[in-house]
Amino acid sequence: MTVSIAHLSDPHISHGLLAPAPAAGLHAALGRVLTLDPRPDCVVITGDLVDQGRPEEYRALRELIERFPMPMHLLTGNHDDREGLLAEFGGSPFMGGSGAAYYSVDYSSFTVIALDSKMQGSPAGQLGGQQLAWLDTVLARRPQTPAIVCLHHPPIDVGIPFLDGMRLSDGEDLAGVLVRHSNVARVLAGHVHRPIAATFAGTTLAIAPSTHLQSRLALEGTVPNYVSEPSAFLLHLLAGSVWVTHTVSISHAAAPIATF
Length: 260
Ligand SMILES: [Fe+2]
Description:
Radius of gyration: 17 Å
Number of strands: 13
Helix content: 10-25%
CATH superfamily: Metallo-dependent phosphatases
Mean pLDDT: 96
Distance between the termini: 25 Å
Shape: globular
Bound molecules: fe (ii) ion
Number of domains: 1
C-alpha cells in the first residue's frame, strides 16, 4: 500500500478584483492532485491560506475546497487570521475536528501534526512553550508511526535575507523537541514561495512552493519580489521503507488537470 501526502502552500486566496488568479491557482493545484494515481491519502496546505485574513476570504476558500473529495488539513500562516480561520473551519475535518489552530490527525500508517506558528502583529512566526510541549506529547503517543510535522514558517534560515528576517523565532526549541523522537518523517513548511529542502533536527525539512506566485531567488537584499515562475506542490511518498519527496508541476504540467 502506498502512503503519500500532497503538500500545497501559500494559496493567498483573495476577494474582490484580485480574487481570480489565486483561486485559479489553488483550484488547478487540487485538480492536479486528483489526477495522481493512486490518489494521495490527504492534502496539507501549509498556511497563508488567504491574503488579508478577512472573513470573506475564508468564505471564498470554503467555497473553493468544500467539494474537494479528499481529506484536507489547513494551517495558519502570517497572512491568516487565527480567529477568522477558526470561525469558518474550526471543529471541521479541515482542522482535524479541533477548535484550536493546532491539532493532529491519526491515519493508520502516519500522523499529521499541524502546528500554528502565527504570531500576532508580526510576519515572523513562533510556536511557544505550550504548543511545543503539546507536540512532544503527540509525537510520543504513536512512537512507531511516521509523523509529518507541519507548520508555515521555516525553522531555519534558507539563504534569502528577506524571508530569513521573518522565519520561525523559536526554531531551535522546535529542533529540541523533534530530536527526542525517531518517528518524524518530514517537517513541512511554506512561507518562502519556493521549493527548498534541508536537513533539520535529524529529519528532512521540505518547503513547498506557492500555488499562486513564487518569490524571486533573492540571495541578497531585503526587497521582496514575487514572480510568475511555475507553480507546483510537493508529494511526500513512502517508497518501501524510505520517505521521498517529489515536486509536481501545476502551471506547466504535461498531465491533465481534473475538475471537482
Ligand atoms: Fe505566503
